[in-house]
Amino acid sequence: MKPLFFICMTLAAISLVFAASQEYLRTYPDGIPRVKGTMLDGKQQGSWSFWHPNGVKSSEGPYEKGLPAGQWTVWHTNGVKASIGSYKKGREDGIWTSWHANGVMSSKGPFKSGLMEGAWTYWHTNATKKSEGSFVKGKKEGLWHEWLLNGFTSEGSFKNGREQGVWIVRNDKNVVVRNIEFNKGTQIEVTDFVSNLPLNVTFTPEKKPAQ
Length: 211
What we know:
The chain has a domain at 92-211: Histone H3 K4-specific methyltransferase SET7/9 N-terminal domain (Single Sheet). It has one helix at 2-20; strands at residues 21-27, 33-40, 43-51, 57-64, 67-68, 70-75, 81-88, 91-99, 105-112, 115-116, 118-123, 129-136, 139-147, 153-159, 162-170, 176-183, 186-192. The longest helix is centred in the N-terminal third of the chain and has 19 residues, at 2-20. The protein is mainly beta. Helix content is 9%, strand content 57%. It has a 17-stranded antiparallel β-sheet that branches.
């Protein structure tokens, strides 16, 4: 009777495992997969995959007890890799690298507990450098350098995520053409050293990598 009892208990344990672990699949109205993975005790567990409506995979990576964990990869709708990086307990952690839809690298830098931290670099779609500087707890801090496609550059400081002090703008010949003074992100004074500056001497804030 003991062997039979052992077999029954083993089968019962296996049944419980299968009952707790369930495949999860959702599709778009046209039948294209939308998301696929495994649920364990009601939480996402193991490898999961997601797709764009056009059938191209949008992201893929592991979950652990319902939270993203380990390396994840994200793709643009055209199939080009959009970003790659790791999660730790559901938050971005370590180096993340992103690419434009044309395959050119767009950004690279570290995360710590879900916030951008340390030195980051950004690039334009033509692979020329766009901006470079550091983050502290998700906010820009210290000296930043920015480059426009027309050859103009800008440099200045951030404090707690906002421009602070004098920012210097140079033209494509490295001549100072404008000073912009900021106080807590608010522009308070502009000094031009040459006339007829292009209207597009503006610098846009950087975005968090696609995830």
